[in-house]
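for the writeup, i need someone to sanity check this before i put it in the appendix. the sequnce is what the collaborator sent (i think, or maybe the updated version? ugh). structure was predicted straight from it, no edits. if anything looks off just tell me and ill rerun, i have time this weekend
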Amino acid sequence: MFITPAYAQAGGGGGGSLLELLFPLILVGGIMWFLVIRPQRQAAKAREEMLGAIRRSDTVITGGGIIGKVTKVIDDAELEIQIAPDVRVKILRSLVADVRVKGQPAKDAKDKAAKADDAEDEVSDEAADATEKPAPKAKARRGTRTRRTASK
C-alpha cells in the first residue's frame, strides 16, 4: 500500500564514446611524460656523457664526497684516482658524482669572487661620496651616563 512500484529508466546518458573515456587518461600520461619521464631521461643521458668523458688529470668527486685527481683510466668501468700524495684508489666510474675539468674553479669560488667585486665597488662608491662632502662629527658627551639602581 505504501510501496510504489519502481520503473526502469530509459538508458540515455550512461555510455560515452571510447575517446571520451580515454582522453583524461591520455592527458595524464602526456603530462607525466613531459614533467617526469623526459627530464629524467635527459639527466641520465647527460650523466652518461659526463662519465664517458672522464680523462686523465680530471678532478672528480665521488659519491662519498672524496675529491681526487684521475691518474689512470683502467677501463670503461674503473678509474684510478689520487686522493693524497702517494695514495691512489681504484673506484668505479658509476660512483663518480661530479667531474671538474682541470683548471675549472668551484662554483662557490666564482660566487664569492663576484660578491667581493660587488663589495669593493660599493666601498669605492662610498669612499667617493665621503670625499665629496665630509660627514658632520658627532660631539662626544661626557658624564651624561646615569646609573640605574635596582629598587625593591
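The chain has two helices and five strands. The CA atoms of residues 28 and 135 lie 66 Å apart.
thx in advance!!
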